[in-house]
Write a structure and sequence with these properties.
The protein is an alpha/beta fold and about 270 residues long. It is built from eight helices and nine strands. It is an enzyme of class 2 (transferase).
């Protein structure tokens, strides 16, 4: 058994995260990072505006990580020093539950960030919007979520309060920076197929405003680790049944490019002020 085999039930995922954090510290020369940022589909152009990284590391060089599996994601992680002396760890991709690598792999980046010293994580994603007023390219704060994956990153008798899983003061901070920001409930389906119109109607009945294939499991793991969580969705397309046209992943990437300036400025100012 490899020490980095997250699939093996005998592996302690926190030990793998600690090993990954040690590699980050060695490669960056930084004892700790303060804020982690996970880039979702369409967010890479925005994240490029955060600042110049002083270190860029291939995912495959870090224990427990794999190459990017989705177009529009980057298979590297970057370490960016800020003017205020803090340091941001930027993940260019995430592991999605639909990739079949298991829940531990999905939340490994979150646990690595916590092991590296991060007290705050910003989770971004590209998603389908259920409100017609949210045009493609609209960023929306996640106020809460509904996890429809039928799984959890928590193992055993681990009970974590998720009342404020998306930290209210961070949402308030984001709205101070951009008062036009709306917020909504994010619904995660397993994927990788898009939701059917009936499933979208179900999500709306349940109280959802956004639908996608990521984020909720990472947010749960972050709260378990004691991290503050800010979730931001980029509405890249109307959800199935709301739009008259078929869904296409290329639309997700294009919407990210179109919204890069607004989302990049928003990310940069939020990270500066956290």
């Amino acid at each position: 058994m490899s020490d980095h085999d997250l699939d093996d039930p005998r592996t302690d995922p926190r030990q793998v995260a600690a090993a990954a954090a040690a590699v980050l510290a060695e490669r960056t020369g930084a004892e700790r990072h303060d804020i982690a940022l996970v880039l979702g589909s369409g967010w890479k152009p925005a994240a490029d505006m955060l600042g110049e990284p002083d270190t860029e590391i291939d995912n495959t060089d870090v224990p427990g990580f794999a190459a990017a599996a989705v177009e529009g994601h980057s298979g590297t992680m970057r370490s960016i020093p800020l003017a205020n002396g803090r340091r941001v760890l930027v993940y260019g991709t995430r592991t999605h539950y639909y990739e079949g690598r298991g829940v531990r792999a999905v939340v490994h980046a979150v646990r690595t960030a916590a092991a590296a010293g991060c007290s705050t994580i910003v989770l971004t994603n590209g998603c389908g919007g259920l409100r017609p007023e949210w045009a493609p390219g609209t960023p929306v704060l996640i106020s809460d979520h509904i996890n429809l994956t039928a799984t959890s990153p928590l193992e055993g008798a681990t009970f974590v309060d998720l009342t404020d899983v998306y930290t209210p003061r961070l949402r308030e901070l984001a709205r101070e920076i951009d008062p036009s920001l709306d917020e909504g409930v994010y619904v995660q389906f397993r994927g990788p197929h898009y939701e059917t119109p009936a499933e979208v109607r179900m999500a709306r009945v349940l109280g959802g405003d956004l639908v996608g294939m990521s984020t909720t499991l990472e947010a749960i793991a972050a709260r378990e680790a004691g991290m503050d969580v800010l979730g931001i969705s980029l509405v890249t397309n109307p959800a199935a049944g709301i739009s008259p046209t078929p869904l296409d992943h290329q639309e997700v990437i294009e919407a990210g490019r179109a919204a890069a300036e607004r989302c990049g400025a928003l990310l940069a100012r939020i990270v500066e002020r956290i």
